[in-house]
Amino acid sequence: MEQTFIMVKPDGVQRGLVGEIVSRLERKGLLLCGAKLVQLTKEQAEFHYKEHEGKPFYPELVRFITSSPVFAMVWGGDQAIALTRMLIGKTNVLDAAPGTIRGDFAAHTPMNLIHGSDSQESAAREINNVFAADELLEYKKAIQTWL
Ligand code: IDP
Ligand code: MG
């Protein structure tokens, strides 16, 4: 089972969209493996976004992501990374299609509500940055055969 790191960003928590976002991922048939509300440290934020270090928007991105709590999650499932990226929508809010989380709720970049890992390597790094191994569960749901 592939795992991905999903995070409702500070704007999503402040706007009360945690439930809406969790609901969309649940209804898709993904498996919730772990979740917690957390205030990221500057070090965690910089490690999480290290691929963007040096880009013009990087300092503001680190400031934004540490400005208020995020709701961090690990979701599992077949092709969980690609599936969640599709549900999340494109990075730029003007490119994010209606029906996606960003397309339906986000009006400005970088405040685009949600993060999702873009590869298995990123997912492993991002998960370990926020979660301890004993905070994650692998289990089966009876409905799995119907998904
Ligand atoms: P992603 O979140 O869709 O994977 P990335 O390119 O990895 O997009 O960028 C990480 C985050 O950095 C974006 O979600 C957004 O919050 C912010 N960001 C990306 N590009 C820009 C930009 O050009 N201006 C401002 N913020 C940006
Ligand atoms: Mg990214």
Explain how this protein is built.
The chain is of the alpha+beta class and 147 residues long. Helices cover 38% and strands 18% of the residues. It has seven helices and four strands, in the order βααβααβααβα. The chain has helices at 10-14, 18-28, 42-48, 58-65, 80-88, 101-105, 120-130; strands spanning 2-8, 31-38, 70-77, 114-116. Strands 2-3-1-4 form a four-stranded antiparallel β-sheet. The longest helix is centred in the N-terminal third of the chain and has 11 residues, at 18-28. The structure holds inosine-5'-diphosphate (IDP) and magnesium ion. Inosine-5'-diphosphate is lined by residues 52, 57, 61, 91, 109-110, 112, 115, 118.
The CATH class, by name, is Alpha Beta
**Tally of strands:** 4
> What's the tally of helices?
7
| CATH topology heading | Alpha-Beta Plaits
Mean of all residue-level pLDDT scores:
97
Q: Assess the beta-strand content as a share of residues.
A: 15-25%
**Computed CA radius of gyration, to the nearest angstrom:** 15 Å
Per the principal axes of the C-alpha atoms, what is the gross shape?
globular
Q: What would you say the CATH architecture is?
A: 2-Layer Sandwich
Sheet bearing the most strands, described? 4 strands, antiparallel
Instruction: Name every ligand kind in the structure.
Output: inosine-5'-diphosphate, magnesium ion
Tell me the helix content: 25-40%
Q: How would you spell out the order of helices and strands?
A: EHHEHHEHHEH
Termini Cα gap: 14 Å
CATH superfamily: Nucleoside diphosphate kinase-like domain
How is the largest sheet built, in terms of strand order?
2-3-1-4
Supply the helix-strand structural class: alpha+beta
How many structural domains can be distinguished in the coordinates? Answer: 1
Spans where pLDDT lies below 50 across 5 or more residues: none
